[in-house]
Design goal:
The protein is 34% helix and 21% strand. The chain has 318 residues and is an alpha+beta fold. The structure holds zinc ion.
Length: 318
């Protein structure tokens, strides 16, 4: 379902919603504005990191500070679609909000496409959004590994074939997210997962009941039965997928020191994984838009340069 350009979710800088829906030229100013704010955030982060004495971190700060200095869009005007065609991006999605937005958008598009294919093959499949958490703790690395191992064990129980709350699940894709727990102030890693099944036992999404999934999760983690399962809208599946592919960290809700700590702890780790029918969706090779399908169509190039205060459109060359 296309979202209206006035959808308030689009104004949330931490939301991926603005990246989907309206793709025409009318949506470009908001899009560029969103990227400009993200770029400003990345510049502030680069400033923070550049205070470090570590030469490696100095390099990271340098890369971060030039990320998205320019953006090249192509407007395919006969079909009114705008595609991000060129940009030098730092790819450090744990530090850079601009790269985090683009990474989320790429994954979102790839997995939604797979989802539509699967649903066309079996219209009885339903998508559910499942959130799994472990107990908050001071040691992010230890807590993250605990969550990851617990998730692996949950799936192993399905594969062993001796009865599992995931029996009947056709496929799933999930992502790890870390933030500070609202009450504890300690690290709170958790995961959001889209689960595809004809039916997931409803007991797990009736408040106050310990369902089969909660019980298994508690048995595995030893410290959490926190499981949330809710059906994803059939009409607007993107709304559920957005939860999975949003940022791995909440930039606007944490200090720069926490962002840096999460980067140093989680870099190089696989933060998005899949199982079953969602396996084999290709990883995005870059963070630009795919426009192969539009090849041969006429377009106008729009070149934006970042100046203090935001992106400015360069006058088109004669
Ligand atoms: Zn970047």
């Amino acid at each position: 379902m296309a979202r209206s350009p006035d959808d308030p979710k689009k104004e949330n800088p931490d939301s991926l919603a603005g990246e989907i829906g309206v793709q025409g030229i009318e949506a470009l100013p908001r899009r560029v504005d969103r990227y400009g704010k993200a770029k400003k955030d990345a510049l502030d982060m680069a400033d923070f990191i550049s205070q470090s004495d570590d030469p490696q971190l100095q390099k990271v700060a340098q890369r971060l500070s030039t990320c998205g200095d320019y953006l090249v869009f192509r407007h395919f005007y006969t079909i009114d679609q705008v595609k991000l065609h060129g940009a030098r991006l730092c790819m450090k999605h744990l530090l850079c909000k601009l790269c985090a937005i683009r990474r989320g958008a790429k994954y979102l598009a790839a997995y939604l496409q797979r989802f539509e294919l699967l649903r066309a093959g079996n219209p009885r499949l339903r998508a559910y959004l499942v959130t799994l958490t472990v107990k908050d703790g001071d040691d992010l690395k230890e807590r993250f590994e605990h969550l990851k191992k617990s998730q692996q064990e949950l799936w192993m129980r399905k594969h062993r074939g001796r009865g599992s709350p995931l029996d009947g699940v056709a496929g799933a894709v999930w992502s790890y997210e870390v933030k500070r727990g609202a009450g504890s102030g300690k690290w709170h890693p958790h995961l959001h997962m889209v689960v595809l099944a004809e039916y997931l036992p409803s007991e797990d999404y009736q408040e106050g009941t310990l369902g089969a999934l909660s019980a298994a999760w508690h048995n595995i983690t030893g410290d959490s039965f926190m499981v949330n399962v809710k059906p994803i809208s059939q009409e607007d599946p993107a709304s559920g997928f957005i939860e999975v592919f949003k940022y791995a960290v909440k930039f606007s809700e944490q200090s720069q020191a926490d962002t840096l700590h999460a980067f140093l702890t989680l870099r190089g780790k696989r933060l998005i994984a899949s199982s079953g029918a969602f396996r084999g969706v290709p990883e995005p090779v870059d963070l630009l838009d795919d426009s192969e399908a539009l090849e041969g169509l006429p377009y106008v190039t729009l070149f934006y340069r970042y100046l203090p205060g935001g992106y400015t459109l360069n006058p088109p060359r004669a």
